[in-house]
Design brief:
Order of helices and strands: EEHEEEHEHEE
Helix content: 10-25%
Number of domains: 1
CATH architecture: 2-Layer Sandwich
Structural class: alpha+beta
Radius of gyration: 15 Å
Number of helices: 3
CATH superfamily: RutC-like
Length: 140
């Protein structure tokens, strides 16, 4: 891996009562490189800002994570360069669906992650927003 991950874990061990499978860690140490700060990604297209036609938390999360992946690639990086995610959801009952879907995109990556339940996002139809930070190592 490009970065040193401290105390990696899987959410299936941390939250055994929930059906989760996310590879996360307690801290990430980076050295040098280019930092990519992404604004919170929402379930809309990057090119035209159109919302996807779904009120399903899993489908919305797929779009959010696809946007993050696209932005990391456009910056010259890979998903393995993601070091931090902050997840905002509007209903705690969506947590498992959001995290299960997010986990498909970060399998083996082990970023640090913070999750928050918020009253609302910028548009009432949005159920999830995720902001990400990636560090692309020098030479990549």
């Amino acid at each position: 891996m490009a970065h040193h991950r401290i105390r990696p874990f899987n959410t299936s061990d941390t939250y055994p009562e929930q059906n989760l499978d996310n590879d996360l860690c307690q801290a990430v140490v980076t050295r040098g490189g280019r930092t990519v700060w992404m604004r919170g990604q929402c379930p809309q297209n990057l090119d035209d800002a159109q919302n996807i036609d779904s009120h399903d938390p899993s489908e919305q999360t797929h779009k959010v994570m696809q946007n993050i992946r696209q932005l990391v690639h456009e910056a010259g990086g890979e998903m393995t360069h993601v070091v931090k995610l902050v997840v905002y959801i509007t209903d705690v009952r969506h947590r498992e669906a959001v995290y299960r879907t997010m986990g498909e995109y970060i399998k083996g990556v082990h970023p640090v992650c913070t999750g928050l339940v918020v009253q609302a996002l910028a548009r009432p139809e949005w159920l999830v927003e995720i902001d990400a930070t990636a560090v692309i190592p020098d030479g990549d």
